[in-house]
Amino acid sequence: MHLEYMLALRQTIETQKIFLCYSGYITEEIITCMGCALRHKFSVDNTDKKVARSVFAVFIELAQNVMRYCTQRDIGCQGDVILDFRYGILIVGKNNTDWVISCANVIETVDVEKIRLSLNYIKELDRQNLRLLHKKALRDEPHESSKGAGLGFIEIAMRATKGIAFEFTHIDDKHSYFTIAVYIG
Amino acid sequence: MKSLKINRTQRTPEIDFNLELNTFVIKGESYPEDARKFYKPIIEFLEVHLNTVQNADIIFDFELTYFNSSTSKIISRLFNLLENSKDNNVIINWHYLEDDDYMKELGEELADDLAYAVFNNVPKIFPC
User: Fold this and answer.
1) Is the pLDDT score of A141 beyond 60?
2) For A93-113, b where at least 16 C-beta lie within 10 A, e where not — what string?
3) A148 pLDDT above the threshold of 70
4) Residue A69: per-residue pLDDT
5) A174: which of A142, B23, B57, B65 lies 20 to 30 Å off by Cα?
6) Of chain B residues 46-105, which have a CB less than 8 A from chain A?
């Protein structure tokens, strides 16, 4: 990256109060390391324990979503081990006093409407109905076909005390960009 | 096999299943990307044992401070197994940090479907 762009990126990071930002292949090891960095930040800032637990949980859930569903990937092998790396952007920052956990990745265009409908539905539910939906999802949802807004998104919504915002951007018939921001305060 | 012991890692909890004492403990944090893969042998181990014993006092302690959504599914499955072990007396102890309402509510939600197994809330002040 040319230096002038580096400075522009640096400025965005500062104005958006981002303290953790990752763009690249997301693996379990990377998620764990970033989780450690998050917890370090919580203890340094003396973050409220409940808020810290929720930010951590949402971060893990979003990151593992990328690992499962992102269609921008590199597949290869190392000996007998199949390597399947999925690409995504993960950001944790602050918006005044609220925490914002955001994530962006490529998904299949065919899944867009299903995810949009589920997320819109989940977003509007009050705590009690969210709990009921969670209970149902825990028992009903087949593990394999949980593609789309399943249990993970319900648990994210339960932690998102200040709401969820999301957006889909059409790339082509096969691929769309999915961005989501989860607010916790 | 008399017991099943697995050490905790950064992403997976400690497993301590003692078949002689009939005590079962899952302790720590659980957020493996593929929870089914990690828990498959553990569930099978428990399933076989529950089908083998009769009139046993089974004590299952969940001492988790954090778990991801795919682990939630597994825990629901474990509750199911324990509830359906009607030939035995099953006690489920749900440990959580005192200020963790989320974990407390999750335990209550899981306990809702229990009719045979006994469920106990065990709030703790310090991290387990």
Assistant:
1) no
2) beeeeebbbbbbbbbbbebbe
3) no
4) 80
5) A142
6) 66, 68-70, 72-73, 76, 97, 99-102, 105
Find the closest chain A residue to B33 by CA distance.
A64
ipTM given for this complex: 0.93
Q: Quick one: which of B11, B4, B3 has its CA closest to B71? A: B11
B88: amino acid identity, one letter = N
Tokens encoding A105:
């990745």
**In the prediction, which pLDDT does A74 show?**
83
Retrieve residue A86's tokens: 């999925």
Q: Strand runs (DSSP E) across A41-163, as ranges?
A: 73-78, 81-95, 98-108
Q: Which residues pair with A83 in a beta bridge?
A: A76
Q: pLDDT tens digit string along A23-35?
A: 999 999 999 999 9
Tell if the CB–CB gap between B69 and A28 is shorter than 8 Å: no
Sheet of strand B57-67: strand arrangement: B3-6, B14-18, B23-30, B57-67, B89-97, B118-124
Structural domains in chain A plus CATH codes: 3-184 (3.30.565.10)
A11 in contact with B, Cβ within 8 Å: no
- DSSP classification of residue A19: E
Cα–Cα distances (Å) from B73 to A33, A83, A143, B69, B112, in that order, read 25, 26, 8, 7, 15
Rounded alpha-carbon distances, angstroms, from residue A136 to A143, A182, B36, B64: 13, 23, 19, 22
Give the domains, in start order, of chain B with CATH numbers. Answer: 3-124 (3.30.750)
**B43 contact residues in A (CB cutoff 8 A):** none
